[in-house]
């Protein structure tokens, strides 16, 4: 072997050794499949948003169960809030006179039977005098009867006189009962010259048009008292939807600030008003009464059970969010919320029908659910 051949063989051997060393170094420095899988898993975005109950309250995120029923089972209607018939009273003067004392003002609490004002009245004086005279006649008739009974026992007076005295006492007592009933109906005060204006219900004074020294006629409204804890809601439904509503049907009441209060249908008149062409439904709120006030206008969504299927799921449209190419709702978990993929159907009246991915009764984020979406996207970006 000459010198050139030896040089060529040495160079080939050096190249082989270098390639083998490079392959070994690459094997030693390459990541293992487990490490690569763990890296990919850590890089994948999470669908969970950790949030404490205090943070949920601070963010004003409302949580409500997904409703059951078909989308067309929800009947939207405008409703008016008012006190129940036995929780509101219009207070009047039972006789004409002048307002002499006022004890309560608007907003003051009142107990049943408590006096709000006094009205001086000539009629009250006449009724009180009549009551006193009737009581005196009863006393006189009772004494005459006792005297005739004694004379009859002695054989001095005939029985006819005794029976006449007995009849006179019965007439006097009937007259006294009439005068006492008149005084009670007029609410004559103990001073014998005033009429008492008292409340038959407990609650608060909501109106007080009476003024001190004002002359008022009989049955003039002086005060209005209502119990704010005993409320009912009346909603007018289209005549076509009225037959679908049953007593006990669930109702969602939407307030002006976006809050939702649960309620139930108490009763339905079943009669269509000839002027408005609507049927009146009475609704009773089951919670959140402290946020309601008589006269307030609210929106009601009645889930009529008449002829409607109950295997569907409905959620408010604010609960449905789009994250990337996914449509999700945020389900409440022990540590916060979890984005759950859903398939949506039709939309109507602020509700969205969920075709799949969510069961009825599952607690989900409704109001301000977009905050969870933003938090989820921020975590994915990080």
Describe the overall structure.
There is one protein chain. This protein has 382 residues and is an alpha+beta fold. The chain folds into four domains: 48-70 and 311-381, conserved putative lor/sdh protein from methanococcus maripaludis s2 fold (Beta Barrel), CATH 2.40.420.20; 72-85 and 228-303, Elongation Factor Tu (Ef-tu), domain 3 (Beta Barrel), CATH 2.40.30; 92-121 and 193-226, RNA polymerase II/Efflux pump adaptor protein, barrel-sandwich hybrid domain (OB fold (Dihydrolipoamide Acetyltransferase, E2P)), CATH 2.40.50.100; 124-186, Helix Hairpins (Orthogonal Bundle). It is built from six helices and 24 strands. The chain has helices at 3-29, 33-43, 53-58, 122-154, 159-186, 370-381; strands at residues 48-50, 63-65, 67-68, 74-83, 88-92, 97-102, 109-110, 115-120, 194-198, 203-207, 215-216, 221-226, 231-238, 250-254, 260-272, 278-285, 297-303, 313-316, 321-323, 326-332, 336-341, 343-348, 351-356, 363-365. The strands form six sheets. The chain has a six-stranded antiparallel barrel. The protein has a four-stranded antiparallel β-sheet with strand order 1-21-20-19, with helices on one face. A hairpin with a 3-residue loop joins strand 20 (326-332) and strand 21 (336-341). The longest helix has 33 residues, at 122-154. It is elongated. The chain starts with a helix and ends with a helix. The relative contact order is 0.18. Mean pLDDT is 81; it is low at 5-9, 21-26 and 28-44.
């Amino acid at each position: 072997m000459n010198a050139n051949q030896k040089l060529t063989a040495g160079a080939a051997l050096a190249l082989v050794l270098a390639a083998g060393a490079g392959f070994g170094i690459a094997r030693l420095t390459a990541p293992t499949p487990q490490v690569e899988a763990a890296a990919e898993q850590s890089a994948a975005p999470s669908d969970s948003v950790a949030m404490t109950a205090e943070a949920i309250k601070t963010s004003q995120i409302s949580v409500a169960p997904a409703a059951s029923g078909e989308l067309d089972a929800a009947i939207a209607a405008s409703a008016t809030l008012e006190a129940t018939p036995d929780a509101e009273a219009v207070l009047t003067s039972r006789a004409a006179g002048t307002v002499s004392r006022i004890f309560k003002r608007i907003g003051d609490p009142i107990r049943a039977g408590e006096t709000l004002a006094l009205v001086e009245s000539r009629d009250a004086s006449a009724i009180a005098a009549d009551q006193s005279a009737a009581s005196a006649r009863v006393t006189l008739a009772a004494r005459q009867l006792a005297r005739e009974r004694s004379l009859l026992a002695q054989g001095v007076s005939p029985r006819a006189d005794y029976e006449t005295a007995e009849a006179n006492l019965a007439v006097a007592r009937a007259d006294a009962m009439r005068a006492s009933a008149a005084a009670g109906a007029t609410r004559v005060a103990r001073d014998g010259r005033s009429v008492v204006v008292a409340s038959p219900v407990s609650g608060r004074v909501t109106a007080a048009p009476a003024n001190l020294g004002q002359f008022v006629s009989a049955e003039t409204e002086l005060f209005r008292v209502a119990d704010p804890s005993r409320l009912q809601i009346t909603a007018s439904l289209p005549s076509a939807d009225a037959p679908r509503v049953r007593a006990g049907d669930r109702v969602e009441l939407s307030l002006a600030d976006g809050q939702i209060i649960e309620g139930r249908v108490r009763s339905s008149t079943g009669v269509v008003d000839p002027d408005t062409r609507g049927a009146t439904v009475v609704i009773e709120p089951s919670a959140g009464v402290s946020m309601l006030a008589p006269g307030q206008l609210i929106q009601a969504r009645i889930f009529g059970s008449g002829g409607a299927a109950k295997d569907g799921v409905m959620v408010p449209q604010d609960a449905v969010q789009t994250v990337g190419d996914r449509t999700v709702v945020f389900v409440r978990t022990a540590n916060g919320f979890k984005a759950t993929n859903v398939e949506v159907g039709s939309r109507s009246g602020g509700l969205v029908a969920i075709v799949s991915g969510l069961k009825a009764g599952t607690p989900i984020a409704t109001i301000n659910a977009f905050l969870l979406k933003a938090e989820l996207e921020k975590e994915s970006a990080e």
